[in-house]
Amino acid sequence: MTDLKERIIQSSLELFEKHGYHGVSINQIVEHCGASKGGFYHYFHSKDELLYVIHDTFITYVLEKANQAKQTYNNPTEKLQAIIESFVKVFDLYKPHISVFYQESTYLKPDYEELIKKKRDQFKQNIFEVLQEGQDKGEFRSILPVEITGMAVLGMVNWTYKWYRKNGEKDIEEISHVFVDLILHSVLTGETLQQDRYTDFFLQTKMNS
To answer: DNA-binding region spans which residues (predicted)?
Structure first.
């Protein structure tokens, strides 16, 4: 991403968070980042497209990480662990983007909203597929309904945006380990929990190392 495009995005994030989407004009954005209207329109056709790019940035990141986890690891426990860690860390990497998303997502144009929804659905489906694979292979508890469990994971992690602070007592790495421990202890069978190859995923092991 070019410096100017990044400056435009960062300025719009600051202004949207402070004044709301409709409270900010393109003129204010370019003035804030020291650009010109020509520079703005070189990268974005409209303010609507800019809002879409802000939303798309972090959704694309978590989707790519989930796809990468599915391709990298052979077993569902490792896949789920990797997906959870990258999912939690997005709230540190893209906190302003996510704040604007929750504040201003209602203003997305229908075409852009559909593109975002498609990626969100793909990410959700990735989690469902890994959970189903884990049950099929006997690593995850089969008594847990896949869709309810998947939605519980999404809801639990998504709520991070409400309370996470970069200067908090725990950094995002430590927080991601807590989520992994909570979720894996919930979904793994007792037999899987005892496997040595997964012990590094749990807090007790990290505390003792």
So the answer is: 25-44
